Amino acid sequence: MPKKKTTKKPKKKETGYTAEDIYVLKGLEPVRRRPAMYIGSTGSDGLHHLVWEVLDNGLDECLAGYAKNIEIILLPGNRVRTTDDGRGIPVEKHPQTKKSALETVMTTLHAGGKFGGKAYQVAGGLHGVGVSVVCALSNYMKAEVCRGGARYGQEYSKGKAKTKVKKIGSCRQTGTTVLFEPDPEIFKEIKFNAKRILKHLRQQAYLTKGIRITFKDEREKEKTSYSFYFEGGLASYIKYLTHGSAPRNPNVFYCYGEKNGMVVEASFQYTEEYEYYEEGFANNIHTEEGGTHLTGFRTALTRTFNDYAKRNDFLKESDDNLSGDDVREGLTGVVAVKIKEPQFEGQTKAKLGNPEAKLIVDQVVSEHLTDFLERNPQDAKAIIEKCILSSRARKAARAARETVLRKGVLEGLALPGKLADCASKKPEESELFVVEGESAGGSGKQGRDRRFQAILPLKGKILNVERARIDRILSSKEIRALIIALGTAIGEDFDIEKARYHKIIIMADSDSDGNHIRTLLLTLFFRYFRPIIEKGYLYIAQPPLYKIQSGKRIEYTYTEDGKKKTLDLLKKEKITNPSIQRYKGLGEMNPEELWHTAMDPEKRTLLQITIEDAKEADRIFDTLMGEEVPPRKKFIQTYAKKVKNLDI
After folding, report:
1. Active site residue 84
2. Binning pLDDT at 50, 70 and 90, where does residue 241 land?
3. CATH number of the domain bearing residue 255
4. Closest CA to 276 of 190, 390, 371
């Protein structure tokens, strides 16, 4: 058995951190003029980005080895306070600005210890933009620094200092505290989401093992507190991400290595799922759009698994190599790099662009993965067999897709016969109603506006795609009709640019069967047409539950509460004994009723489907639609008391 390879972490070098380490590039006024250029948007994403930027300062101290604890508190009045036990921002006079180094950092764009100095070898914040941008976009901000036995403080507003840096007390420890209140002139809605912040803090605690991150929400009377501390780093994170899924390889792969000054960490585990999930980080920043580090990770996995499969006779020399898609099926993987000069695409750092990251990640992961497979032959066998099974299924699915496409060609690319298409050929103005049942489809076809509204009725409940591979999915007549109607194709051939409609509206009954049909369709779109959801093209129609009529006056209500309010209103107007019709299905509505209540753009209510947290959505679909019964039973027991309007 080969000896386990170990890579020692580099020892922290003691370096100075004084005013000379703060480098100035330019001022702050552009931030208030064009905030979206610096934080992505002035909506919820940009608002939370302020928290991430202040947090980055504390994380940089942790990465440098000078801090062990970070605390974030949500306070009443839309205020956030962040504290770390690092070295504390320098307060002496800066040689360039002739102001305090603290004021320079807080009020000058591109000023920080990440430029040319030795204060930070790697840092999360890009070019020191972070905290000064937060200062510029805050109605009020206060910084307190413990350093050299003294406590110093300064206040700011809208990017400008309101007081001088002054000594306000003494303290034994060191560290920095930043309190800020976002400016309502910039952010029209200020509402911090505790769940979103917790998710981000959990990620950071996994990425910076051995540090403690505490979160407190003190906005309400019932205060909450959470603390994250993980010794296992990315390996612990993988266990968290795969919780509730059956593991394919019991031993989680983890590696740590350094080449040419870049630190690489990677970890993964395979489950019995068909989907894959990957996350990439650069200097603790979540690169949501991937980048060169994730490309290197994928390349290493594909090549190493192919080499191992050929070397150990899982694949013959004449067999096709496993593709990247084959290797990723069922994979949950995370790769994180620490790099001195990160090159991000976009100010909000969504994608890493450093070319050298691809090669170095590839080398580090390949070396450790080869060793892992040799030391864990049972895990290796389980993974390779899943990849080979995926390859066979992919070939079968390709044949099935070609059959569907070939049939389309023979029929002159004919659309499904049951589809009542719209006259418009402009996707941006066209709507497709996916309707439950032939009778409802008939009413929809008669009631629609033929200029821009198309109707596709589906017969019964479609296949649960959570429990099927794509070759079986394509054998479903109803799903094939939907694929051809959408125009995007599916799987490897999927192309969002070919979507024939930019509004796809699921319209089903309001009873339990209708809810099930909606869930089956949402599962299909989430698993195989996710870009349609991400583009904002998918909606759910809201047909009424009740028709309340008194003479010629007709009111439609969509909930039990709505019915009660309508009846109360009629009583006040001295209208008694109105007729109440409870719609059991869309088929009970005549075309005119369906148009006025669910299809008329001027009057209807549509719910747009969005994905706020892809991993959490993935977990919910696994729970509700997967093969494992115990998690679904537990979910039902947990939320049973919260169910309303259950159709009996």
Report:
1. no
2. very high
3. 3.30.230.10
4. 390
The active-site residue, picked from 436, 466, 478, 593, is: 436
pTM (2 d.p.): 0.71
- For 407-492, list the strands marked E by DSSP: 431-436, 453-458
Place of tokens 């930043």: 178
Share of the chain above pLDDT 90, in %: 54
Clarify whether residues 167 and 254 are in a common domain. no
Q: In which domain, by residue range, is 323 found?
A: 234-394
- The pair of structure tokens assigned to 570 is 């009629």
CB neighbours of 500 closer than 8 A, spacing ≥ 6? 427, 430, 432, 485, 486, 487
Picking from 228, 262, 283, the residue at the C-terminal end of a domain is 228
* Torsion of the alpha carbons at 73, 76, 79 and 84, rounded to the nearest 10: -20
Annotated catalytic residue, options 92, 371, 374, 511: 511
* Ordered DSSP codes for 490-507: -GGG--GGG-S-SEEEEE
For position 205, what pLDDT does the model report?
95
pLDDT in tens, 371-396: 999 999 999 999 999 999 999 888 88
Quickly count: other Cβ atoms within 10 Å of residue 306's Cβ: 21
- Catalytic site includes residue 45: no
Where are the alpha helices (H) located in 190-291, listed in sequence order? 194-207, 234-241
Q: Is-catalytic flag, 436?
A: yes
Q: How many beta carbons lie within 10 A of that of residue 428, not counting itself?
A: 10
Report yes or no on 152 lying in a domain.
Answer: yes
CATH number at 539 reads 3.40.50.670
Same domain, yes or no: 287 and 376: yes
Assigned domain for 277 exists: yes
Both 65 and 159 in one domain: the answer is: yes
In a domain, 239, yes or no: yes
Residues 243-269 have pLDDT tens digits of 888 899 999 999 999 999 999 999 999
Q: Catalytic: which of 379, 478, 509, 555? A: 509
Q: Is 167 left (phi over 0), alpha (psi -120 to 50) or beta?
A: beta
Whether 319 is catalytic is no
Element (H, E) at 212: strand 212-217
Q: Tell me: do 352 and 434 sit in the same domain.
A: no
